[in-house]
Design a protein that fits this description.
It contains seven helices and no strands. It is mostly helical.
């Protein structure tokens, strides 16, 4: 199985590095961040402001689904972008942490979406009565709210480590001249 995964990954890297620019990952990272945060905040809003048509519940569910898709695509582009970077011991360690947080983000997001799907199909009277899994179409529940919180915490940690790699260590940045901005009138 590891050999099959290695072959698929190698094929993706060979094809993807020819099709996409080296900066494809930084171009994509904002989508899962915004979609997951939007899903979580709308879930919280749905708890506070209940409407009879459950629009907010459905909106937060679909934002979570889109966040899962965007996160998967972003992770795939991250594999491509890392092929173009020169790594040292510090940035390699940061990359490992970044990837670990990204995997945890994905796991929390999968659990979030699955918990919302289970909420759509309750099985027992206990589920209906205590609403741990809820009743209704993709309804937000306490469990899904916890998974959503885990997803936004992890995506924020992932983004923070990614930003540290770029802004503090210059990972993936080529030929950038740093200068101190000058505010106010210039004196000769």
């Amino acid at each position: 199985m590891a050999s099959l995964w290695g072959s698929i990954l190698g094929l993706w890297i060979r094809i993807g590095t020819r099709l996409f620019p080296p900066v494809i990952h930084p171009m994509m990272v904002h989508f899962p961040i915004v979609l997951l945060w939007g899903s979580f905040l709308i879930s919280v809003l749905a708890l506070v402001w209940r409407t009879h048509d459950r629009f907010l519940d459905r909106a937060s569910f679909w934002l979570a689904v889109l966040g899962l898709i965007a996160g998967t695509v972003t992770a795939a582009t991250g594999v491509l972008s890392e092929q173009f970077v020169k790594w040292n011991a510090t940035t390699s360690a940061l990359l490992q942490t970044h990837q670990t947080y990204a995997i945890l983000t994905g796991m929390f997001t999968v659990l979030l979406v699955l918990s919302r799907l289970v909420a759509r199909y309750p099985r027992t009277q206990f589920d209906r009565q205590w609403s741990l899994f809820g009743t209704g179409r993709g309804r937000s529940t306490l469990l899904s709210l916890i998974f959503g919180l885990g997803a936004v915490v992890m995506v924020t940690m992932t983004a923070s480590i990614g930003g540290t790699m770029v802004y503090q260590y210059g990972t993936g940045v080529h030929g950038v001249a740093f200068h101190t901005p000058h505010f106010g009138p210039r004196h000769p």
